[in-house]
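Quick look at the format.
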Amino acid sequence: MNDSAVPLFDAVRALAFVGDLAMGQPTDHSQRAAWIAAQISRDAGANDTTSTRAMTVSLLRWSGCTANAPDFAQLFGDDVSGRNALLSAQSPEGGFRSGTHAEQSAFQTLSRIHCEVSGDIAVQLGLDMEAQYALRHLFESFDGNGAPSGLKGNAVPMEVYCAALAGDLEIFARLYGKEQALALIQQRTGHLYPAELARHVVNRAPQWLAALDEEGLSRECEPRENSVGNRTTSLEIMAHVIDLKLPWMTGHSRQVARLARKAARQLGLEQEVEMRVYRAALIHGMGRASVPNPIWDTPGRLGRAAWERVRLAPYWTGRAARQVGSLAAEAEIASYAYEQPDGSGYFRECRQAGFPLEGRILAASVSLAALQADRPWRQKFDLEHASAILLADAKTGRYDLSVVHALLDQAALPAVATPAGVVTDLLSGRERDVLRWISLGASNKVAAQRLSISPSTVRTHVESIFRKLDCSTRAAATLKASQLGLL
């Protein structure tokens, strides 16, 4: 049994949910926009395969935004509110595309990271070449002033235009009303998208928006093309994408999942429960995307407003249960990741009686994994000290004592086998050392200090890593290396 197999379209919807949180949008934005994108495509005469691809590209439009969150936050501050403001901008060129054609502009850099990672996600999901190409060119414009490659006219995939039109219509109609939304789309016609496709939107938008408001998404936002609807993918992809938002979280979700699965096995739970807690652990960080990076990166005590946003992160994970199909049970369990049996956790502040066993396993596993990793507010603990801290907390009621004992007794269990197909010899040992540090957000200079080598040597290794992994950004290298088992 593959513990991480999940229907492909459910994984796509889960990634769309994370993207909406990261962009500061309502959690049904991408699904509504995807439905509209499919309508635009069909109105333009596309077949089911193309319209399903337009829907999928629209759902995954913001899948790369966890990858450039650190850069966005460094340049503009609050990455969540900043993106929301750009999406809301009433400019003819569009907030995201304005200035992207400048060779070294911030938006060119951010777009390149975003599009490269989105394309790599499409590869890992097994989407077709056309979808991969579209996702690598999400911010291209009809007039050639987009990013990352400056494509123009018919060189831009139709799916990109459909996703852009659908996203603009959904956001502008929600914020400014239908009339103003259509006026803004007409202003952008010829700049961002072609007149032919924009005409379908202008003619049909009132009907489409009314259908969405009256009928909802349950019936329509489904793939009509069987090659997408009948396939599965690996849930580990979700874990890697979630963790990209904060470099110091690289590998965290996978580590939590390993710990949780072994603890469930040590407790003698049925295989179905073991599988469920493992899958929940992989996605427990979904709600983290709703919190701006500067809050997560705060080295000291958080203020009340910031802490309230952190407390709501698992709430948003739980909200995902309503939108991600077959992952609903896992998303519900995942929302217990920061609860504690004595009622001191969040967001529910639930006590032992209302705390499912799977949730108690997850909460203890999250804590043990976090204690053994560096955080902006403290240094990591070795296993002995981390175990002592966790056990002491369990004795005071902050964690389930029986779960903690199972978690700490895992040395008696056999190691989890390396998954088939994992590449272990693609990079040299030194390249893997360098990759580990840059994946955690270290600069070349910091990596050089940690490894006692020169910055120029680190740069040479980074160039070699990029070449071997066929990528051009650190975020993409981290994603690929995580999937290949190199981190």
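Next, a different chain entirely:
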Amino acid sequence: MSSASTADAGPGGAAGSTTAQVRALALVPLLAYAVLTQLDALGNRLSAHLPVGTTPLLLGALVAAAGAMLLLPGASRRLGDTIGARLIATLFCWAVFCWALSLHRSEGLSYLGKLAAALLPAFCLFLIADTPARLRATLWAIVAAGAVSAAIVLIEHHTHARILSTSVAATTAGFEGVARSAGGSDENPTTSAQMLLVSILIATAWLFSGERRWRLPLAGLVVVGALALVFMSARSALIGFAAGAGLVALGFRHRGFFPLLVVGGVVALLGAVPFLPPTLVDRFTAIADFGQDPTLYRRISYLRIGWDLFQQSPLWGVGPGNFPLYYVTDAYRWMPGREPFPRELHNTYLDAATELGAIGFLLFAVTLGLALRSAWRGAGNSDAVLRRTARAAGIALAGLMVACFFMPHKDLRYLWLIAAIAIQSGRLASRSGEAA
């Protein structure tokens, strides 16, 4: 019997039946969260006439499900021995400490709420997704959401209409007069593209890891998703996709056809350039000509201002959510491309160092490093489900971490959800090794 079926099997009789029902029901809000995080525009429409939004409802359901799982035998011990959970909790506590020392506390408190909403599901996942099959189901929910979002992007690109998105951030973004689709999200198109990136990389990892049963649907999602990323004109997501695809290709480095695979990939990439949308080509060529894309001046200013603020408070930073308020101060009014309204620092890692200081950055980096290491450990497990799940989570996390160099995403929900899946896969691999 596999580790998944062994873990799911409970004691016989009524007690075992109740345990199975609790475990099955607890998985529902986690899957809903994985889907509606990327399709948040759909969630916003569903809750438009409700007194409570979709996010609070999902978080409440997740907490209730995790609480129910805590009542099962051994659950509290399994959560307590998770170093990842302790690191995430320590990071949030440190963010609260930095907030207490910050200048702009009201804005910081609002940011802490968003950070807590991103971190809380990770704790719930450690309790709910306690088997390889449950981790795999969560990844499938992310893949399904990506398939829907990618389809919406293609439809919107063809019809020049908006299907689900209603927010200003999602509907007004454009480049050179061409509107950019945000798919099924109300986030800005770049953030939406990075969430779609996670779905595509999971599908890519599974497609090339021996997944035979769902090969055609996965291949279809990779193709459609890659096209959607192209039409979304998100440079950071495409760079992250290239990094993730490179990691998948490295998995074949010991095969005789690996050099041919590399050459074929380069030729295919160069051959696709003439067929790419002019907007996307212009966004990449603008990197060498800042006059073509003035936002690049602003991105350089983000980095310069962030580094200056970090030097002023290197240990605990300026406080969570405080960078945008410092950005608009007179001290930086002559920075090239600086705008007169608050903007976030578009580099997740410098953003963490600037707002949370060196200690906060260290906690952030160690947590993500642990997630990658755990995924590597899980990818070497003998259980096929766990091995493929860990590999997919690790590749998706690595690609997203590359993309995060260009966006302020230390509170991105998919970042922490994928990191939690990676950490959990390593825990399950260690547990199965101890059992063996």
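The first helix runs from residue 3 to 8.

See the schema section for token definitions.
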